[in-house]
Amino acid sequence: MSAPTVSTEKVDSARRESGRNVATALRSPRVGDGARIWRIAKDSRVLDVNSSYAYVLWCRDFAATSLVAEVEGRVVGFVIGYLRPDRPDTVFVWQVAVDRGQRGRGTGAALISGLMDAVAADGATTLETTIAPDNPASIGMFDAVARRRGAEMTRRPLFGPGAFPDDHAAEDLYRIAPKVQEELR
Question: Domain spanning 9-178: which CATH class is it, in words?
């Protein structure tokens, strides 16, 4: 899998509308980005924060299925994912987050869409993620990506609270996949 090349047109236009013309670059993460990704996850206050080691390792081993957003040389957002071993046509998004000062500019949606574009070259057509039912912002972001791509988003329960050893909320599985075309009669 080669390093993703991603269009940043949507993110850049959102920045221009805010009165500040600052380019946002989407690129594969590097090991040196792991610490910043961990901080963004920690500061989000909604993500389950993994160890800092996990983020550094993710940047090394899953860089081809992950992206960071960079503004003026600083990582301001990330999406980390992997191709499902039993379904290589499906990329699973583990986490996506944007620095608090960069939210509302389309960066999260651009990261998700950019990841879908990047893995499409290797045959992936479907994206999966899990979202807790009490997280409407994430649900809305993934729904917006599906609509812009002309794709279908479905939801079903995946992990109930009993699947977790702590007080973790339930997680629903969301899938974004191409719409099934009805055969012409």
Answer: alpha beta
